[in-house]
Amino acid sequence: MNKRIFWLFIGLVCLGVGLAPSQALRSGETAIYLRNGDLIIDRILDISSARLVLETENNGEFPLRNLWMINFVNDQWNFPDERNQIENADHYIFLKDGGITSGKIVDLSSENRMFDLDNGEKIAFGRIRRIYFSKNVPQALMKDVPVVSEERTEGSFLSRGPAGEKEIIFQSGWHPLEADANAPLKKWRWTSGEARCAVNNPRRDAQLFIKGWAHKDIIPSQKITIKINNVTLDEFIPEGKIFEKSYSVRGDMLGQNDEFSLTIAVNQTFVPARVIVANRDQRELGVQVSYIYLIAR
Questions:
Q1: CATH fold of 157-296, please?
Q2: Contact between 42 and 28 (Cβ < 8 Å)
Q3: Residues spanned by CATH 2.60.120.260 within the chain?
Q4: pLDDT-derived band of residue 74, with 50, 70 and 90 as boundaries?
């Protein structure tokens, strides 16, 4: 089997992520992240399954046990979500269509352009986004990896970017902040049918986090729509009452203004006084939103 041809082909179609301008990849190069924190930009020539090494054109060989991740596409990765799916298998392969598979790569077929895994699965290499060899991100690379802040708390609506942390500005369709220690969400704001807010624009790719609660006892099939600058980012019907969403948002979607518009809309609202016995709340309500976080990558 000619693995050299296989890996040269991958190098021609793959680009790295999170690289400084001086590290921009040329044709045929890949971004190889090592467990010691080093980032190697090079052409991958071969993988020896017998000696368990990866051979590069200009930097020699690296034992497979020293690899953390190889990235095959020119975008930053949604590491918080991906890390939640990494457990203890040898290799985790994230696909371009959003799928994931795990197992040990035991063979490469340059003729059929397939990875062969030890579980018998075959994966066309054109489908692959990146491969993780370890769940633990090297400390030296943490600055290049989008990390979810542990300070995401209910009742917080924040944008974190190069200019620091800024509050989200509520515009139309929002009700005041409420709190109840015995409620499913401890702090929240109700939306009406359509709630708009202005979010500080980091002018780069970002991760958007939204947590909320839908009153499915009253509106079981309520559909929620998330928009950025009036462009639909997602439409969904929550499976349960509480929903948590995470979106990778490209910088060009946020526009060039200092702030961008974020809209949370529902297709059905309700008035508690009309549907709940002894309730006097006459507000038009959509869903509860517990927090909104935008974190620049």
A1: Jelly Rolls (2.60.120)
A2: no
A3: 157-296
A4: low
